[in-house]
Amino acid sequence: MQMGNPRVRRSRMLMSALLCAALSLSGCGGGDGSTVANSIPADSNTMQPTQPVQPAAVNWTTLGTRATPAQPGTSIKSNAGAKWVDYNPPVLYAGVARQAMQYITMPDGTKLAAYVTLPADASGNAAAGTFPTVLVQTSYNGGNAQYEASIGAALGAADPYIVQHGYATVVVDVRGTGQSQGTWDAFGADEQSDYGHVVDWVTQQSWSNGAIGLYGVSYLGITTVITAAQNHPAVKAAFPIVPIGDGYRDIVFTGGQTNLTFIPAWFGLVSVLSLTDPTLVTDPTIGLPAVLQHLVSAVTTFQLPTMLQALLGTTATAYDGAFWATRSPLENDGKIKVPTFVVGGLHDLFQRSEPLTYESIKTQAPAKLLIGPWTHLQAALGSGLPVDGVPPLNHIQLQWFDQYVKGMNVGADALPNVTQYVTGLGHYATATDWPHPQVQAQQLFLRGDKSLSATAPAANEASNMVAQQPLNGACSISLSQWTAGLTGFLPLPCQTDDTIAEAADVKFETPPMPADVYLNGPIEADVWISTTALDAGVSVRIDDVDAAGNVTPLTDGLQTASLRAVDASRSRTMNGLMIQPWHPFTPSSVQALMPGQAVMVPVEVFPTSALIAKGHKLRVAVGASNLPQGVPPLPTLLNSLVGVLTIYSDAAHPSKVVLPVVPATAL
Predict the structure, then answer these.
(1) pLDDT band for position 498 (50/70/90)?
(2) 576 within some domain
């Protein structure tokens, strides 16, 4: 339910009731499980709001993983009507005490740097007794003093608010980063093995009571979910903020294209922070070898070699396989047995997988999902909170850990199951589950006259063409998203309005909506194309266009045409329609293109939650590239240059978009 004006909710309910009466012949409110397209009059040219249906697990499936096929969906209906409360009890301790950096020795002899912060009195004297522990595992040098500012918790510093409420905090530099020894191999097998040994070490400390809550943002959130999946008995709860789910599909090779916006900058950040090692000054005999090892590793072992292999299209890196499976927590998230609170963002780096992480855990353990209107940095800081009753993130974290780590009854279990910011509504809304229990797939066809219609195209409808070049979207919301939100601090209108970004795209639009339409979930665009080149990229943007012509970006997707193969057994379906394709992205799945050959390219468009208001139009813009999101590896790029992309919209090639539609009365 939406936490806003009840008069607005009543008016929407009345509008939906009137529409339901007007559309009664189309089965409004029925639950026969037929596709939405079959419930719309054949002469309809506009998108019709889906009416409430009885939630049923058989209406949709999960998205599979490399190891498991899609499964019948399970829809949680309990905890309806839950409300947010701000849990902010008085502090238990007046201060915090930071211990000197110490080392944890791994079985292979590698030493990991650890930073311990304990509750203390006002003078900074550590309190006596034992405490539950918040464990943070970071690649961003947890010992740097400058991390004690507001950005500190995002990069790995102990949060005084949490410590003063009775928690020890242990921050550990993963191997090969910060002040730790070893070679960095982000989320590799050795690093993941270290996580369990670190948990063991925490439980053996004199100040530890043996109960651990896992916490972290971004990289730290990823170590959180991976550690949680190891099911160490000391781990009682997890609170990951913006964790990745699939290293290949989420960001590094979205749609088979290399992310050159964020990944090089991220590699550089980890490398620089690993070279700012205070032990260079305090103990050069330890600090100098560690820094040299980090530098050599960056140049010869991981960071630089990985980027070069990605750019050159090396098989082991540019295609999905064992390397990426190891670095994809979704392969094991279903094993998590501890209560887990997942935080994500509508424009986050890992937008695709944050709801999938929740979905993987929800049937195995208590789980909650909070999605804000955030980029990566905004999510790390919980920007804009408190609002609509949603408290600051560290208040939620404290409530979660007090309930499940300390064992107190503080109402964390009664918080809303799913809370999402709804673009177009301008507020957060709650639901009992994700996917939304009332969601139904609805398909709209991309017509030759550039309209979007529920009516399938006729024979010989016009096709449309765009030039293939890699620079589309250079200034767009994608720039803000894939710089983790850094460019979002610049007043660039092109980052909040897609008009410029879509100037070279083919734009398909509905007529003005006769009533509010609520979209919530993943989207699939099945685009029939041909090219004059040997390969092509297909970019799809979804927008809300208001009466004044302002184009609000909602979400997007990107797909290399030669990697269009879909594994139907792992793809998500919803009331008979595929709505989230699973592309294998393996060398054996490559399907070559012949110039002029028409092929259908299913594009995975990342999940969103948005209200297309009455009088607004829904736009689907199709182009050939999205520069900030991805650039093809060099061999694919050379095959794609100097081409013309034709987008078909006829009876033999019915391009369409499949949308997740929820009754607006659910808001």
Answers:
(1) very high
(2) yes
| Token pair 């697990």 in the structure block, residue | 57
Identify the band that residue 282 occupies on the pLDDT scale cut at 50, 70 and 90.
Answer: low
More confident residue, 367 or 291: 367
Least confident residue range of 110-114, 138-142, 593-597, 606-610: 138-142
Phi and psi at 621, nearest 5°, equal -105, 130
Checking if the pLDDT of 32 tops 60, the result is: no
> pTM to 2 decimals?
0.90
**DSSP secondary structure, 273-328, as one string:** HHH--THHHH-HHHHHHHHHHHHHHHHHTSHHHHHHHHHHT-HHHHS-SHHHHHT-
**Same domain? 661 vs 582:** yes
Per DSSP, the three-state class of 424 is coil
| Number of separate domains in the chain | 3
Domain match, 512 and 566 both: yes
Q: For residue 163, what pLDDT is reported?
A: 97
- The reply to whether 501 and 427 lie within a common domain is no
Q: 602-627 burial, b if ≥16 CB within 10 A, otherwise e?
A: bbbbbbbbbbbbeebbbbbbbbbbbb
Report the amino acid identity of residue 214.
L
Residues making up the chain, counted from first to last: 667
Cα separation, 645 vs 640, in Å, equals 10
In terms of domains, do 414 and 451 share one? no
Please report, for the domain that includes residue 101, its CATH number: 3.40.50.1820
Given this model, what pLDDT does residue 50 score? 39
Backbone torsion region of residue 27, taken as left when φ is above 0, otherwise alpha when ψ lies between -120 and 50, otherwise beta: left
Asked whether residue 397 falls in the same domain as residue 507, the answer is no
**Tens-place pLDDT, residues 138-167:** 999 887 644 555 566 667 789 999 999 999
Q: Write b or e for each residue in 394-424: b if 16 or more Cβ atoms lie within 10 A of its Cβ, otherwise e.
A: bbbbbbbbbbbbbeeebebeebbbbbbbbbb
Output the domain CATH number for residue 584.
2.60.120.260
pLDDT tens-digit map of 554-600? 999 999 999 999 999 999 999 999 999 999 999 999 999 999 999 99
CA-CA distance, 63 to 35, in Å (whole number)? Answer: 19
Range of the domain at 392: 95-249+327-431
Half-sphere CA count of 139, side-chain side, radius 13 A? 26
d(CA 438, CA 518): 11
What is the model's pLDDT at position 156? 78
